[in-house]
Amino acid sequence: MAVEGAMKCVKILHYVLLLAFFACAVGLMAVGVGTLLVFNATVDQGTASGVLPVVIIAVGAFLFLVAIVGCCGACQESYCLMVTFVIFLSLILLVEVATAIAGYVLRDKVRSEFSKDFRQHVENYPKQNQTDVYLDKMQTQFSCCGADNYTDWQKLPLEPKNWVPDSCCVNVTVGCGLNFKAKDIHTEGCVEKIGAWLKGHVLVVAAAALGIAFVEVLGIIFACCLVKSIQSGYEVM
């Protein structure tokens, strides 16, 4: 027996939300990959904070697969597939909440690890083992110099002392960091600069996460309605 009225609307909305799930899944994987690249470049691998991007990527991939299950379940009006969809989507929502909590709890640890690693990179800069390329890129991109400030470079056992990498200069030219003047270089440290940049982007990520969670809650509600309808013996559309 065909279901009329509200249940037809629910099924249509379910398909619309599935499209949103596919978009959210791709977005999560993109954010996870981007975050992983940043973490690999700034924080030692194997730390607890480095696990978060992997979790985000895994959640995005799993959400994509769950959306396929939801689409198949709705098309075939399969009670089993729709129940599976509801259960998996609920699990994804719980994992996302846990990830958000972990990110908040580990925020200070991430900053501490980044600060420690950046100082280590500064010390390794003279060895020219790709560390110099990484630091030059970071200092140029964020208009900063050193970990805390430009004086970090004066602490290295190098001659002459009045020296910073050319990437610290406001106008980068070969040799501009030798016998520099403070007004000609970026004096602010990279740890503070990059930390401020990350803090500004956290609000955008948090807003996106809330939007995704809201869509998932709606998806669970509509899917439960379809499950109830199928269980009652209705043939939807």
TrEMBL record:
The topology of this chain with respect to the membrane is:
Multi-pass membrane protein
**Protein's UniProt keywords contain Secreted:** yes
Cited InterPro entries? CD63_LEL, Tetraspanin/Peripherin, Tetraspanin_animals, Tetraspanin_CS, Tetraspanin_EC2_sf
**What is the predominant subcellular site recorded for this chain?**
membrane
Q: Which UniProt keywords apply?
A: Cell membrane, Endosome, Glycoprotein, Lipoprotein, Lysosome, Membrane, Palmitate, Protein transport, Secreted, Transmembrane, Transmembrane helix, Transport
Q: Give the signal sequence positions.
A: none
- Which Pfam families does the UniProt record give? Tetraspanin (PF00335)
| The protein's role, per its UniProt record | Functions as a cell surface receptor for TIMP1 and plays a role in the activation of cellular signaling cascades. Plays a role in the activation of ITGB1 and integrin signaling, leading to the activation of AKT, FAK/PTK2 and MAP kinases. Promotes cell survival, reorganization of the actin cytoskeleton, cell adhesion, spreading and migration, via its role in the activation of AKT and FAK/PTK2. Plays a role in VEGFA signaling via its role in regulating the internalization of KDR/VEGFR2.
State the family named in the UniProt similarity comment for this chain.
Belongs to the tetraspanin (TM4SF) family.
Q: What is this protein called?
A: Tetraspanin
To which species is this protein native? Pipistrellus nathusii
Provide the taxonomic classification. Answer: Eukaryota, Metazoa, Chordata, Craniata, Vertebrata
